[in-house]
Design goal:
386 residues, alpha+beta, 6-stranded mixed beta sheet, 6 strands, binds iron/sulfur cluster
Length: 386
């Protein structure tokens, strides 16, 4: 899904601005640095759209242009594989819809207008299937850093709302299904709600929160949504929350396991998010000339490097050192790099016999985590290194 670059309230940030309505106005002046990941995602989306449009016999000139601009830099074997997976899933869904409703509709890259509910907001839905009273909005995500669930996902609900507004005059739509396809981490998430539930959320939550966020007069509310906030490094509310979490246990002098579980561990992700941004922000400030009293910028450690590899090797050979002594043995690239080269399935087919996955080291996770709990005292784990 794609949204307009300049809208203050982007649907992709809705989880943040619904919870912290102060964030968008605070973030508005912070420069948006386009990332390599964003360009890679744009290319993958262009392939997805091209493959589905070609199947439907629609023109693909726009996609071909985008692909030509980005292909040399970002195309990989795995991108072909993952965009094929997306195409297959969408077409399976479309065929299932057609089996129920003969004139089921598949729409690719549909421009949607959310501005009646979220000021200035527009977006493009990757795929929409309309059939038999149900409309399905499908979102392809190429990122693999964060697993995104469709369940109660505000971005998906906003797209569902936009699609409903666009098509409800022509088609009978009672239910809206939202689907996220994130093939790089095998995440396929679906969630469905009735149109009346969607409208109740729109009137009760979305519209009032969007208005407050647009005006910028709501409170700063820290939480897990701070992770991608552009002002997380210097947000006073987040800073206070993190400092208070550390300060709030003066008595007894040592914290108990119960306090650790109930008060400290739930704050871990938020504190890490905050700390990760603070050091970088402070350095950027100092480098731009801001005085931070008691602190200075110094030269960091650096590692010596050989400027002429061939020249150095020749000199070592001449000095009597053998080639096998001075060169590292040849080494295979990492599994991630090789999968990128070949595609995940292809890599498994070629190298599956040579791969093993060792036991992971024990990790703390909240009770809600899907992985089963392990017994840390069991023999299986006594040799795992920390
Ligand atoms: S860091 Fe968190 S609390 Fe602060 S403005 Fe951003 S979302 Fe709100």
């Amino acid at each position: 899904m794609g949204a307009t670059a300049h809208a203050l309230l982007s649907p992709s940030a809705a989880h943040r601005w619904i919870n912290c309505t102060a964030a968008p106005r605070l973030e508005a002046d912070v420069e948006d640095k386009g990332s390599e990941f964003a360009a890679e995602g744009t290319l993958a989306h262009a392939y997805c759209a091209q493959k589905l449009k070609a199947f439907l016999g629609l023109p693909t000139d726009g996609e071909a242009k985008e692909i030509a601009e980005l292909n040399d830099r970002y195309h990989t074997g795995e991108m072909d594989e993952y965009t094929d997976t997306y195409k297959t899933i969408v077409l399976e869904k479309f065929n299932a819809a057609r089996a129920k409703t003969k004139d089921a509709l598949l729409l690719i890259e549909t421009r949607l207008d959310f501005s009646e509910y979220v000021p200035d907001a527009f977006g493009t839905a990757d795929a929409i299937i309309i059939a038999d009273g149900t409309m399905e909005v499908i979102d392809f995500k190429y990122g693999k850093g964060v697993k995104v669930s469709a369940v109660d996902n505000p971005q998906m609900k906003i797209y569902g709302l936009g699609a409903y507004e666009k098509f409800s005059f022509e088609y009978k739509i009672d239910r809206v299904r939202m689907t996220i396809i994130q093939p790089r981490i095998e995440n396929f998430s679906e969630w469905e709600l009735s149109v009346s539930e969607l409208m109740a959320w729109t009137d009760g939550v979305l519209t009032p929160k969007a208005q407050q966020a647009y005006k910028g007069d709501g409170p700063q509310v820290p939480g897990d949504w701070c992770q991608f906030c552009k002002v997380k490094s210097n947000c006073r509310a987040l800073t206070q929350k993190c400092i208070e979490a550390a300060k709030n246990h003066p008595d007894p002098k040592l914290i108990s396991p119960d306090e650790l579980a109930a008060d400290i561990l739930p704050m871990l992700a938020t504190v890490k998010t905050w700390l990760a941004g603070v050091e970088d922000y402070a350095l950027q400030q100092a480098l731009s000339g801001v005085q931070l009293h008691g602190w200075k910028v110094v030269e960091g450690r650096s590692v010596r490097k050989i400027t002429d590899q061939d020249g150095a090797a020749l000199a070592l050979n001449k000095a009597g050192y053998k080639t096998t002594e001075i060169y590292k043995p040849q080494e295979l690239r990492t599994i991630t790099d090789l999968e990128k080269l070949t595609g995940k399935k292809q890599f498994a087919a070629i190298c599956g016999d040579y791969i093993e996955k060792p036991q992971g080291k024990p990790t703390l996770a909240p009770e809600s985590d899907k992985r089963p709990a392990i017994d840390p005292l069991a023999d299986d784990f006594k040799d795992v290194k920390f």
